[in-house]
Design brief:
Layout lengths: L6 E4 L4 H12 L5 E2 L11 H11 L3 E4 L7 H6 L1 H21 L4 E5 L28 H21 L3 E6 L1 E3 L12 H15 L3 E5 L5 E2 L1 E3 H14 L6 E3 L5 E2 H12 L4 E5 L8 E2 L4 H6 L7 H14 L6
Parallel strand pairs: 1-2, 1-3, 3-4, 4-5, 5-10, 6-9, 7-12, 8-13
Antiparallel strand pairs: 8-11
Helix pairs in contact: 1-7, 2-4, 4-5, 6-8, 8-10
Length: about 300
């Protein structure tokens, strides 16, 4: 990938895509192609076809997706399956038709079976039933992985897939219903502090274990793999460390400065009891994460504060 190569970052305004774009710019890449969803509906086959035949990108980072937390995944099941299949089908197929040299597909750790052994190794894919609440999203992402593998097998395409763990960072989604656990807690604690509320309610028991990675670390790993990895096997990207939701909440409470109590609503679902990814293969290739959780949450909170007027 030359510094002047035409690189298309699909989903450049999302948390992952914007981090990839920052990483490319920081590394000196000068020809980054982007389109907002208003400019290009990636679900529209004709529009994506026209975009690829006109722009002819040489490299593609496929970070565009319809995403959300437990509630969004479970509520908009048809949309999560349909929209994500459309997006990735259009981009992967047009990449093949237009001679893209290399493509990276971003999956999600929810592709793994709900009760898979921990930590999650790449080999555990399709070894058991998925978590029911986000099954449609997971199936779409699994289809994307398999599509990259199939295009490699049949057409010789150099398409690679990566599986990030739970992400957080700049440009995260803080929507009260549709966000993931870490940004949701940042918003909850901030609003409780501002409003002088005596407690913050947290879904579930607080016992589930979760792994988190700062989005800029993911982007750094993605660029590293784009430059150094050409294998068929998808690659986990994580920190190899996890934390309970209760301890995460305590960490965020301390960073934000909320002095009230935590209350756990045990009538709400916990989701998967533990979700830690095995990133030893990536580590063996020479990459490890840099930004610790406490440092990263502090950066994310400052980003949240800077966008207060825009957070809905």
């Amino acid at each position: 990938m030359e510094k002047s190569s035409k690189i298309y970052v699909a989903g450049h305004r999302g948390m992952v895509g914007s981090a990839v774009k920052r990483a490319l710019e920081k590394a000196g890449y000068t020809h980054i192609i982007t389109r907002t969803s208003a400019e290009l509906d990636l679900r529209n086959q004709a529009a994506v076809t026209e975009f690829f035949t006109t722009e002819k990108p040489e490299y593609v980072f496929l970070a565009a997706a319809k995403v959300g937390g437990i509630v969004a995944n479970n509520t908009y099941r048809a949309e999560f399956l349909h929209d994500n299949l459309c997006i990735q089908n259009n981009i992967i197929h047009q990449s093949y038709l237009n001679g893209v040299k290399k493509l990276m597909f971003f999956g999600s750790s929810c592709i793994y079976p709900k009760m898979a052994p921990q930590p999650l190794k790449e080999d555990y894919l399709l070894s058991g039933p998925l978590e029911q609440t986000n099954e449609p999203y997971a199936i779409a992402k699994i289809a994307g992985i398999k599509m990259c593998e199939a295009y490699r097998d049949q057409y010789g395409c150099n398409y690679i897939s990566v599986m990030p763990t739970n992400l957080y960072g700049l440009n995260d989604n803080y929507h009260p219903q549709n966000s993931h656990v870490l940004p949701a807690l940042i918003r909850k604690f901030h609003e409780a502090k501002v409003n002088g509320t005596s407690y913050v309610e947290i879904w579930g028991t607080g016992t589930p274990m979760r792994e988190f990675l700062f989005a800029d670390d993911l982007a750094d790993a993605a660029l590293f793999l784009m430059l150094n990895y050409n294998g068929k096997k998808f690659v986990n990207i994580g920190s190899n460390t996890d934390i309970s939701i209760k301890d995460l909440a305590e960490m965020i409470r301390k960073i934000i400065g909320f002095e009230g109590e935590l209350r756990f609503d045990t009538s709400k679902p916990d989701g998967t009891p533990k979700k830690l990814m095995d990133s030893s293969y990536l580590n063996s290739l020479g990459w490890t994460y840099r930004i610790g959780l406490e440092e990263g949450i502090g950066i994310a909170y400052q980003d949240f504060l800077s966008k207060q007027g825009q957070v809905s």
